[in-house]
Design a protein that fits this description.
Structural class: alpha+beta
Number of strands: 7
Strand order of the largest sheet: 3-2-1-4-5
Number of helices: 5
Radius of gyration: 24 Å
Distance between the termini: 43 Å
Helix content: 25-40%
């Protein structure tokens, strides 16, 4: 039987979950470990003869699964070297926070005639090199979701 946690309410110390299409709840005391929203839970017998809820185990096969993205390491690296000051390579990899920062450094810097565009350019150039020389498993060889880039 699949039970999915929908809400964990700290004020009332209650966990709400869906069981056979019906919303049910249980107090924190009925759990061996506190689940998070969207966790799958199951009811298991405890040593004292009662039953307790536990977070269901993930399938072991999914633990070591490596996903490869369709994004190219070469494309990301070259974008970093040539357009890195605008954060284009980070937009390409889905790292929008860093990309927006680089873009703001460039645009605000050009408007105020500051040093920020030079900093963003050096930053992007270094990231481009790091992406090109990265090896599988390193942070520079992954997109924002942690998927490996294609060599």
């Amino acid at each position: 039987m699949s039970l999915v946690v929908k809400k964990v309410e700290a004020e009332t110390k209650t966990v709400f979950f869906v069981e056979n299409g019906v919303i049910d709840s249980a107090p924190f005391d009925n759990f061996l470990e506190l689940p998070k929203v969207n966790d799958t839970i199951e009811l298991v017998p405890a040593r004292d003869g009662s039953s307790k809820y536990v977070v269901a185990e993930d399938e072991p096969a999914s633990v070591n699964t490596v996903y490869v993205t369709n994004k190219s390491k070469l494309a990301a690296g070259l974008l970093g070297i040539f357009l890195g000051s605008l954060g284009i390579h980070n937009f390409y990899l889905g790292k929008t926070g860093k990309a927006v920062t680089q873009l703001l450094f460039s645009t605000i810097g050009w408007i105020t005639f500051g040093i920020l565009p030079a900093i963003a350019g050096i930053w992007g150039f270094i990231e481009g090199i790091l992406i090109l020389v990265s090896t599988p498993g390193s942070d520079w060889h992954q997109d924002a979701r942690g998927n490996e880039l294609q060599d």
